[in-house]
Amino acid sequence: MIVSIDWMRMNFRYFNQKYFEGFLPDPHFGISRSRTRLGSMTLAKTRLGGRIITHDFTIKVTTYYDMTEKQAQSIVLHEMIHYDIAYRGLRDTSAHGVLFRKKMKELNMLGNWGIDVTSSIKDWKVADWVKMRQKKHQLTAFVILVIHLTSDKLFISRANPKFVKSLERKLNSEPSVIAHEWYVSNLKEFEQYPQVRSLRGRQLAKAELQRLLPGMKALQFENK
To answer: In this protein, which residues make up the domain named SprT-like (predicted)?
Structure first.
């Protein structure tokens, strides 16, 4: 199953009555796409009249994994323990200190929930949307331009494929450019590069270019 806001709200209210005496008001609910952080409980603090007021409690659960319902419920309960401690204004010995572990042990004994301070995700099933995104990234080929200037400086750009021909014409008429090469690459780090339409890019050290080259395939471009 993939966690939804409605599912979180329904389970929160059920667990609130069953394990927390109905004491906890509904927090904000949210979903994340985190691979490593399965859930989180956050809050805001405001100083008012010499006192610190806690508010805007938010519980989030990741949608990165296609979890069993019990796995997802365990995450919600984990975050509810954090919420309970914070909402009651209690101070634990650490993030997963004495108070947290006491409540965790109690809930695990009552419902065999398997709540823990850390979770192994080794055999967890990745959600379909993640697989689709990973497949898309694997198929993505970026058009990369390396420019050598008369000043002996190197620049690298991720070019908009629609503007390759116009960039090629500009390169051939630019006196400061002594050489340039086109490549295609699906290196993930090129995702962070802006897709340019003009002759601009990031300065690159020669050693860095040598590091990137194994993941780049030369593209032969004929100017017509």
So the answer is: 11-110
